[in-house]
Amino acid sequence: MTDTSTPASPESSQVDPSDPELNGSASDESDAPGYSGDAGAGSSSDAGLGSGSGSDAGSGAGSGEEAKKSESVVSDGDLFRQSEIAADYVEGLLDILDYDGDIDELVSAGRPMVEVVGGRLQPLVGQRGATLEALQELTRLAIFRATGTPSRLLLDIGGYRAARRKELAAVARNAVEKVKQHGEAVRLEPMSAFERKCVHDVVNAIPGVESESEGVEPNRFIVVRAAD
User: Fold this and answer.
1) What mean pLDDT comes out for the span 188-195?
2) Where does the chain hold its CATH 3.30.300.20 domain(s)?
3) Are 68 and 17 in contact, with CB atoms under 8 Å apart?
4) Phi then psi for 108, rounded to 5 degrees?
5) DSSP of 173-211
6) CA 226 to CA 213: how far, in whole Å?
7) pLDDT tens track for 71-86
8) How far is Cα 214 from Cα 10, in angstroms, rounded to an integer?
C-alpha cells in the first residue's frame, strides 16, 4: 500500500466521481493485488501498486481502466463470495493466533466487508491501525488467490474504522475552521490512505475549502486550504 517510486503528485479533493474507490464507503486504500486505485483522495497520482509518480499512473491508465471495467461486472453474489472467503481466512488467522471474535461477512456500498467483534482484539488493530491494514492486505491476497479477481475488501476489527472515522471528521472540521479564520493553509500529520480519504470526504462537503495529499508513503499528509 505504499508508493515506492518517485514522489506522487498532489491529489486534489475535487476528484473524479467515477473513481471506484470513492464510490465505495469511506475507506482505505484499495491497493489490492491487481487493482489500480487509491483511497487517499482518488486521483491518478496514487494509482497502481508500488508506483507513486504521476507519470507511472499515466502509463498505467489502460490497466486501471481495465480493472474498473472488470469491477463493474462483478455481481453482488460474487462480492458476497469474496466476503465469505475473507471470513474463512480471518477465522483461520484468529484460530492460529488464539483470539476469539464474532465474524460477520456482508456486502456494503458495492464492496465486500468483514467485521470482527469481540474483546481483547486491540493487538490485531495495532498502532493507528497498522496491523489491521496488514491483515486486510493478506485477506485481499487470499481472495485473489482463490478467485483470480482483485478485491476491494474492507476489514474492520473491534469497530476501529468507524471510531477512527469519527475522530478524523473532527480533525478535518477543525482544520477547515482554522483555514477560514486565518486564511492560511493547514498541514495535517501523516496519515494512511484510509485516514486521508476520511479527511478528504469531510473537506469535500464543505464549500470554500479544498484538500490535497502530498508527500510519499509512509509520510504522506494532507494540506487543507482555501479554495481558489
Assistant:
1) 93
2) 76-159
3) no
4) -140, 130
5) HHHHHHHHHH-S-EEPPP--HHHHHHHHHHHHTSTTEEE
6) 15
7) 456 788 999 999 999 9
8) 5
pTM: 0.65
Quick count: other Cβ atoms within 10 Å of Cβ 98?
6
222 contacts 202 by C-beta, under 8 angstroms: no
3-state helix vs strand vs coil in the chain, percent to 5:
45, 15, 40
| CATH number at 76-159 | 3.30.300.20
Confidence at 119, pLDDT banded by 50, 70, 90: confident
Q: Quote the cell numbers at residue 149.
A: 479477481
162-226: CATH number: 3.30.1370.50
CATH 3.30.1370.50 residue spans of the chain: 162-226
pLDDT value at residue 2: 36
Contact 159, 116 (CB under 8 A): no
Tell me if 83 sits within 8 A of 106, measured CB to CB: yes
Cell of 197: 480519504
pLDDT of residue 109: 86
Using one digit for the tens of pLDDT, what is the confidence trace for 134-154?
A: 999 999 999 999 999 999 999
* CA distances to 104, 202, 208 from 174, in Å: 34, 11, 14
Cell of 215: 508527500
CB neighbours of 91 closer than 8 A, spacing ≥ 6? 103
